[in-house]
Structure formats: C-alpha cells, structure tokens
Write a structure and sequence with these properties.
The complex is a heterodimer of chains A (204) and B (157). Chain A has five helices and six strands, in the order αββββαβαααβ. Chain A is an alpha/beta fold and 204 residues long. Chain B has a domain of 103 residues. Classes of the chains: A alpha/beta (204), B alpha/beta (157).
Chain lengths: 204, 157
C-alpha cells in the first residue's frame, strides 16, 4: 500500500495525546493539596498600664495548671497526665457550685467553681517548658471549652457551636442569616466565657 | 474534491499539532494553580506541633508570619545552636519584632490593621522562654491577634 513512498516512515497517530494530557492533569489535580495554614487562634491580653488592683477572686474559682521544665503537669496541686486534663477542666467549669447555673450538669461540688462565668483557668509555664507541651495543654483546655459550648449550643439551637461559627465565617452565608446567628454565638459565649489566664513564665 | 487529491492516498496523515497549545495551556494552568508564590526560605528547623482544636487561616493578606526554631545545620557556624526567630528572610533578634510589625502594618491596607493576625510558626522543641518574649513584644506593639500554627493531629501521641 505505501509502496510509492517507502522512504518516509509512517507517522504516529497523535489523537490520543489529549487523553494522556488529561490523565496527567487529573492525576495532579487529585494528588496536590494546596496547603492552608491552620492553628490555635488566641488573643493576647493588652498591656494594662493602670495600677488598679484586680478584684479579689476566690481560690476555688481558679483552676491552676502548672507545666514544669520537664513538661509535667501539676493541676490543682496534683500531678496529672495530659489525657486527663480535658475532663478535669470540664468538671471544673461545669461544676456550678453555688447553684446559680441552671444549665450546668456538674457535681455541684462546693469546693470547686461557683459558676462558669466566674471560673478562671490559670496556666503557668516555666521558661524551659517546651513549646510542644504548651500547645498540647492549650489545645486540651480549648477542647474543654468547646465541649461545653457544643453541648449547650446543641441543646438550645440544635447545632454545635463549631457549626454556627463556621456558618458565620462562611462568605456564602446570607446577611440576614448572619444577623440571626450572631446573637446565638454571643449567647453561648456568655454562658461559657473563655477565661484562660496566662502568667508570665517563671524564671529561675 | 478529488481534483485536489494527491497521488499518495495510502500514506498516514501527518501528526496534527492543533492540540499542542491546549496541552501547554493545561500545564500552564496547572502550575499557576499549584505553585505557592512566596514561601519564605526557612533558615531554621520548623517542625510544628500537633493540635486538633484548630481554625484555618483563610485570608493571606491579613496574616504576618514569625518563625522560630534552631538554625539549620549549615547556619550553625554563623548563628550558633540556640533557637532563633526568623522575620521575612533573615534571622533576627526578638527586639526587631517591633520594626517588623510596623513594616508589615505599613505594607497592608490600613483598614486591615485591626484584624491583622500574627501566625507564630514555632518549632516544637523551642523553649517557652523565647515564645514568651515574642508574645511580650507583640503585646507591646498592640498586635494581639495571634495564631499558634500547628499541624492537624492528636496531642496525646
């Protein structure tokens, strides 16, 4: 058949080139993840220049967490494992010792916190504490707050607090709905306010 | 029709290069989407700790980065083995955070100044003394919104 031009080699069919390219494209699209940064968002306390003494706080309303230079935890003067910290913080916040907290489900222990509104978690670390231990402790304490907020939000509005927050942040949410969500978030935040105080690291 | 037909009817038609631009464009778009424009050239070790109660940092124009960790092996002669902080592309002293924050603020939209977040990308081996100094500097500069950048994972292992 190709006797008349035997000198030229037969040409390659390039029709499938597009398919190959598409395969490659889809492969890379699936396998690449475009990295977004994520982490624990916190707010630093502003520097207080006034010399007013802070109001006195009852000892039982403070939950002290100490992290020493060997990354060991001392919670309320007792050595504790990191995995028990979340539950201990939940028990403390949810205690409702003076009976004014109608939504608390804790033990109503008189020697623990009066009300979530008064309960303060105080975190103190050593200058030699590792950052990893610090982040772990922060993470567990934030988890305790979120656990309680989620529970209360579920009971009142049928959604978790995280879902509400995500809806509020989502740019696709309509303005009218956002106005409806805002008081809900505020409400939950006042029920379980995040009172996490950090002392300056000890130097010794 | 048959008037223009050449004699060598039996030959295979030439490779069509009509789809070549499409392929090149596809590659181009792929690399445009997948490449990160400016990833700071890190001179320090930066193994982030793990956490699971995390929020995403969506808007890049509202974030400034402070890195901290031990210098890489090839910089040890120059900077020593102690943990250092990195601002933009050079190792700095904690006292330079002040000028860094001012420069970052000046380069952003003034309307964003209040919502500017500082992402702290700190190696998990760094001691809290250094982190405390960074935080104190940021408090003095009134840059109070911070994010401890972590990777996703359980803290217990």
């Amino acid at each position: 058949m190709a006797k008349s031009n035997r000198s030229a080699p037969p040409e390659v069919n390039a029709g499938s080139m597009a398919d190959i390219a598409f395969l490659l494209l889809i492969f890379f699209l699936v396998t690449t993840t475009i990295q977004t940064d994520q982490g624990l968002t916190r707010k630093l306390p502003p520097i207080d220049k006034t010399n007013i003494d802070p109001p006195p706080i009852k000892e039982k309303n403070i939950f002290t967490v100490l992290v020493n230079r060997n990354d060991q935890l001392l919670v309320e003067d007792k050595l504790m494992d990191l995995k028990n910290l979340k539950q201990a913080a939940i028990d403390f916040l949810d205690n409702g010792g003076d009976g004014t907290c109608t939504y608390c489900k804790g033990a109503n222990n008189v020697v623990s916190s009066d009300n979530p509104d008064k309960a303060i978690i105080s975190l103190q670390n050593d200058a030699e504490t590792s950052y990893k231990a610090y982040i772990s402790v922060q993470n567990e304490l934030v988890a305790a707050y979120y656990f309680l907020r989620d529970r209360e939000c579920m009971a009142r509005y049928g959604k978790t607090f995280r879902e509400l927050e995500a809806m509020y942040e989502d740019p696709k949410t309509k303005e009218a709905q956002r106005l409806k969500i805002e008081p809900m978030i505020k409400d939950i935040q006042t029920l379980f306010p995040q009172k996490l105080s950090e002392a300056e690291p000890k130097r010794n | 029709m048959s008037k223009f037909k050449k004699k060598k009817e039996g030959g295979v038609p030439a490779i069509s290069t009509a789809s070549l631009p499409d392929i090149v464009f596809m590659l181009l778009f792929f690399f445009m989407v997948a490449t990160v424009m400016k990833d700071n050239d890190l001179m320090i070790q930066n193994n982030l700790p793990k956490a699971d109660q995390i929020t995403k940092l969506e808007k890049k124009d509202r974030v400034m980065f402070i890195f901290a960790g031990k210098p890489h092996a090839r910089y040890v002669n120059q900077y020593g083995v102690g943990a250092r902080i990195q601002l933009n592309d050079r190792l700095s002293d904690v006292s330079e955070i002040r000028n860094f924050v001012l420069a970052e603020r000046a380069s952003r939209d003034p309307a964003l100044e209040k919502v500017l977040t500082t992402a702290l990308k700190i190696d998990k081996e760094v001691k809290m003394g250094l982190v405390g100094e960074i935080k104190q500097q940021l408090r003095e500069m009134d840059a109070l919104k911070i994010n401890y950048t972590t990777t996703k994972g359980s803290v217990l292992d």
